[in-house]
Amino acid sequence: MKRALLLLIASCAWSQSGIEVPSVGLIVDPSGSLRAVQGIAGSFLLGPAVATGVLSAECSEQLCLAKTDSKILSATGQVDAPPGPAVFGLDRDTAVIFFPQSQTFARWHDDTLELLDWTVDDDVLSIRTGDDKVEIALRRDWARETNGPVLLLKEGVLFATADELVLRRPDASDMRFELTGAESVSAMGPHYAAIRAGAVTFVLRLDRGHEQLFLLPGNAP
Amino acid sequence: MKCVVILALLLPFAARAQIALYVMNGSTPTPAGTALDLGRVAAGDTVSVRLRVKNNGTSVANISRFSADGIGFTLDRPSLPFPIAPGSAQDVLLSFRATTPAVYSANVQVNSQINNVSVIAVVTVVNGPSLTVFPVCTGSDGPPPAIDFGRVQAGQLRLCNFYLQNTSAQPMPIATFQVTGAAFRLSSGPKAPFIIAPGDSTAFVIDFTPGTVGSYSGTLAIETRTFLLSGSAFDSPLPKPLLEFDSGPMQSAQQRRLSMRLPTAAPATASGFVNLAFVPDTTLVTDDPAVVFLATGTRTLPFSIAQGSTQILISGQASAMFQTGTSSGRIRFTVTGISTDGDPTTSLTIPPALLSFDSTTATRRSGNLDIQVIGFDNTYAAGAMVFTFFDTSGQALQPGAILADFTQAFRAFFTKTQAGSAFQVRVSFPVTGDTSGIAGVEMKLSNSAGTTTTQLTFK
Prior knowledge:
The complex is a heterodimer of chains A (about 220) and B (about 450).
Chain A: H1 10-17, E1 19-20, E2 23-28, E3 34-40, E4 43-51, E5 56-59, E6 64-67, E7 71-73, E8 78-80, E9 87-91, E10 94-99, E11 104-109, E12 112-116, E13 124-130, E14 133-138, H2 139-142, E15 150-153, E16 156-160, E17 164-168, E18 174-178, E19 184-187, E20 192-197, E21 200-205, E22 212-215
Antiparallel strand pairs in A: 2-3, 3-4, 5-6, 6-7, 7-8, 9-10, 10-11, 11-12, 13-14, 15-16, 16-17, 17-18, 19-20, 20-21, 21-22
Chain B: H1 2-16, E1 19-25, E2 28-31, E3 35-42, E4 46-55, E5 61-69, E6 73-76, E7 82-84, E8 89-97, E9 102-112, E10 116-126, E11 130-133, E12 138-140, E13 146-153, E14 158-165, E15 172-174, E16 177-180, E17 184-188, E18 194-196, E19 201-208, E20 214-222, E21 225-234, E22 238-239, E23 242-245, E24 255-261, E25 270-280, E26 300-305, E27 311-314, E28 320-323, E29 329-336, E30 340-341, E31 346-350, E32 356-365, E33 368-376, E34 384-391, E35 402-405, H2 407-417, E36 422-430, E37 438-447, E38 450-457
């Protein structure tokens, strides 16, 4: 009897969940607009701008944060923040944030910002948080690999050299994608990373076994 | 009293000058004087000059006579009588044509109630060279004599052959022999000055090479004769462009590459647009917005090709990427903005396919088993689902296969969103009891192309 189960018919639950257009994540387009990306791998739809003047943005499965020059925006509100862009390390519904312009760290939760007395003497490239740990990728740590952007992932790391995008898994296996001129790499969501190269935005699917580089539709008027 | 006499003498003179005759050179009038030399004209050709009669007085002049009395002379003027208001003028065209060499003259006379004007017009008719125009050009004796080079593709050369003959019994000296006008060029023939012996002839060729679309004019001057040259250039049709795609079967949810080339070199530089359109097989949606060129997220891109090249650049690149969307149907590529030798329209068929899963997850919650599917149904006929749960030993759990039909929900979703067939659906199964023994679920989802089966393990 311990294993006896009562499975209700699925249609009872149906109305509670429904069907949605799949969300891929958020990107900051070349004009600084924050835009939602919907669809599936290989068939993306770029949504309208939901915020402008955005300098940095990052999303995890549960949280999306965007940085304007003076504020951090979330789905639930906004909070004043040091000027300039930001490097995000998202962990569930909180985040550790570095502000390069003021060289300060802060912890974000529930649209509040608590400054941390952490200091670094190098460029902060990426932050990974989780399991009560914070990992910070510094420029000097990656100088032998690249002088381009680096993104610490939940599993592995994504970085760009002058002509390649490298997805390195925890087992040190590398997947390389031909891509020239990557300027920034950011997490669009749990399954995709956005790579900006000039006016073009690429999307890399991160799911193991499904890694593939795509182009995001442009945003010409 | 002395002053009065002088005025009286001047009055008749002023009255005679009220109506005056001028020879027009463009818009510049020159007093005709007492003699008007129309120069030399080839026998059979027409020479014309525009005359202007002007009323310089303060009262209306009624022109009662305006004539050119002489063999071969004609006057194109208003019907007589006609008035000319003070300060106004009337232009007329004096023409002459004769076929026999000689010196001809005419008395050109203008009479009004105020004063009369009389001018002697003189013209010398000489034997001119006879010009034979060979096809493809066409000649006209006019007036004015003209040669039409016809319509030529821009950037292309058209040659016209001519035959210049002295049909008279006298040697014919040719001091003037030249071509003017953009796109026209004397490419072969004698150099002036030269003499054509009686009955003799000489051949020459004029090139017409218009660089761009438009109308062209020029002149061919041969001694006493001047021929107007004309021609026009039209936009050159390109060979039918070939639209080509990267290899592999076309399917939904792909990012594919379009390239364009010409089978032969472009005869001229050209530019236009390549467009795509999508017609879905289903009637549930009218379009699939994901079918776009990736460079711009739009359905039109500019292209260009250089003269002499076969490579067509799309937005300055060798190729253009596009998405195939998530709907079965036809993607139609068209070319606009240029004329082509044939219709280059190319269609791609995106075939109906089984339901495709982009990602699937099965999770346990307290009292619930959740199954989430992200995928697409390019037939827009999804809905029928069968779920079978298994225990850790792989045995199907009661009640066995659970059937659900969500067809109407999917149809409503597709119709409402009009965003293609991509979907994210979560199906929750309320459960009582210990769920740890439920290891996995087999899921069968059907559409009009068939049934897709997948097995998920609960986390």
